[in-house]
Known about the structure:
Layout: E1 11-14, E2 17-24, E3 43-47, H1 58-61, E4 66-74, E5 83-88, E6 94-99, E7 102-108, E8 114-117, E9 127-135, E10 146-151, E11 154-159, E12 173-178, E13 182-193, E14 196-206, E15 212-218, E16 224-229, E17 232-237, E18 251-258, E19 264-272, E20 277-280, E21 283-286, E22 289-290, E23 293-297, H2 311-324, E24 328-330, H3 338-347, E25 350-354, H4 362-369, H5 384-401, E26 407-414, H6 421-437, E27 443-447, E28 465-468, H7 480-495, E29 501-505, H8 524-539, E30 544-550, H9 581-590
Helix pairs in contact: 2-3, 5-6, 7-8, 8-9
The chain binds (2S,3S,4S,5R)-3,4,5-trihydroxy-6-oxo-oxane-2-carboxylic acid.
Amino acid sequence: MLRPQDTPTRERRSLAGLWDFRLDPTLDGVADRWFERPLADSRAMPVPASYNDILVGTEGRDHVGDAWYQTTTRVPRGWAGDRVVLRFDSATHAATVWVDGTEVVRHVGGYTPFEADVTELVTPGEEVRVTVVVNNELTFQTIPPGVVQETPHGRRQQYFHDFFNYSGLARAVWLYATPRTRVEDVTVTTDIRGTDGVVGYAVEVAGDDEHTVEVVLRDADGAEVGRAEGATGEVVVPDAHLWAPGDGYLHVAEITLRCADGALLDRYDQTVGIRTVEVRGTEFLINGTPFHFTGFGRHEDSPVRGKGHDDAFLVHDMELMRWIGANSFRTSHYPYAEEVYDYADRLGLVVIDEVAAVGQNMGLAGGIFGGQSYTTFSPETINDVSREAHAQAIRELIARDKNHPSVVLWSIANEPESDTDAARAYFEPLFALTRELDTTRPVGFVNVMLAPHGKCQVSELGDVLMLNRYYGWYTHTGDLEGAETAWRAELEQWAGDGKPIIITEYGADTVAGVHSLTPQPWSEEYQVAYLEMNHRVFDSVPAVVGEQVWNFADFATASTSVFRVDGNKKGVFTRDRRPKAAAHALRRRWTRGA
Ligand code: GCB
């Protein structure tokens, strides 16, 4: 799905700002038709932001159910004759949208965009009222899963993942205009032949006008380096400046639709990073060169705004990534805002792009998170309907992110149950689907400690092995020597599989300011010693091609746990982005030789 943009034929209006807002825990609004009139008893709510921590008290923080948003906007006069579209970059986790009382779209899935053609409902120059109801309930049929429990004190949301269930409109909302005959989608693929860069493209056009398609490829200075005609084609760039880790060099494909008489119909500009990705033996190659991932599993998480996208945090976080010498991150555990990928493209940062399938593991949920235990995969829990939701989440992820050079690997789940026949049966078709949707990138999933080598039945379906391991934290706590022996033994077994191994999580909770002369878990010294132990293990196993620490920064988790103190403290930076001692230790390792 194309991002809205401003070009000679297209225009956007951001609907960011203060919307009218009202919580609806008893789900009355739809039946009472709140969408037909100005929202009564409303208060202000910023968009984009998660609503939970904006409000004071448990009412917003622990809200389960619907939340209503409403705004009015004036459709620009100049859009007469255009197609007008209303687009939400996300609504967590499900939404229904009305324009002046007419329902225009429903969407399920909290981290991918959706839109509605509202041309027939709006008049350029006039105001429209936009009403959205966002539901934040998680069930066994949603991605990620959860259970809503009825208690004497109201409904409570239980979930099986370790980050707070931030909800609402956390990303941009747009009203935008395109011509009626328009570029509907574009897919670019890139290759390298000798010193030539090869850009393949496929343009999908919608609308009734007869048209021709022209693609002009420009370099970063705007100079034309090649062109092609037709809806599909190839542009060869001699001596191409490639996109590479640390060198986010971007070309731009200017896609132009023209009528038979040559008049301009539509223009869409697609950035292109010319690069290749390949898994060969135990190597992960970018442009034919072995790549070693350094960096983090991250979260979209900051004080007050929750998962609300914020350009200040985006740029600051990436400055910290550069300072520390990180070359990559995983979008643990859901697709991030599109601004993040655009910026990673520009910086030459490498991204492992993950779908929001996290918490599909009742062994882990029961063992670590406590509470009632369930069977992970069963007709009553995660079933065929869930798998279709998972498949749809993968489709929407790839449709959105397929053209980002920064994205080099799809992660189709984090730490699901993977040591049972049921898990294998569940995942096989999802791997096949991902490969069918994108033939150019490797696919994997993130394996959990409970399914070690020899027990995991899903890992062999992936092109790479992604392992989350907490030797020295959840096992061998405080015993780094024992941890080192056990960890190396397990890792050597995985290395025997002949695939590249990325350690997608290793980390230790650390309260900034706690110090100790002995290896005390929770102290800054222990986090440093823990990371150094891990690095000794990684450096002794050549198949390890990546190390991503859990986590970039401390982050919010569910309010209902006895083993989290004000959130997860495995950050190398605090939640307000101050460095712990580990940040300096990582910087020394990751900037060696730079
Ligand atoms: C994991 C999960 C991550 C948790 C982390 C932890 O394995 O993938 O979501 O936050 O462990 O800190 O326990």
